[in-house]
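Q: Sequence in, structure out?
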Amino acid sequence: MVKLLENTFRSVNIALANEMALMCQKFAINVWEVIEAAKTKPFGFMAFYPGPGLGGHCIPIDPFYLSWKARQSGFECRFIELAGHVNSSMPAYVVERVSEALNSAKKAINGSRIHLFGVAYKKDVTDMRESPALDILELLHQRGATLSYTDPYVPKLHHGGLQLRSVPEEKAGSGIDCAVICTNHRVFDYPAIVRRFPLVVDTRNALKGIDSPNIFRL
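A: Exactly. Output:
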């Protein structure tokens, strides 16, 4: 129960950060700057960050297990399930941001070449379990995109109807319409990504401090 509480606590607070990101987008406010400012309070605030969705073996799964177990005893975990709904909707939101980025160049997802940076569920690991990048790839594939990716920790992936191999970072770029930063590995050269790609959707605040009109943030 302690482990379930810990992971549910994280899920719920990440969901709040994700919902704030959706809201701030409507207000044209940078949610990452809001969180950094809130962190300056010396008490009463613990920073959680938005992202493209939850990954890993624990946080995406444990809250739903807890809710299922509680339902067997006649208890409805409405708060926990709402958090799960918010978090699970983030890959679709990322795809909408990709669509908005492409629309700014008078292009559609259908027929565009889209390249993902990072498919592991978090930075600097090889673990792909429940990675939101897989959902993003699947949704983009369903909408007719031609896909590729770079992840030095994941040399190849098989998901649904997709079979892809990682492209070395220095070879990615030619003919790509939009790059999407899904996992903020420290090995990536982020300033070079902004220079080389016409459009970049950043879901992790990996481009913090870089200001360019071709950047579309979460």
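The first helix runs from residue 2 to 27.
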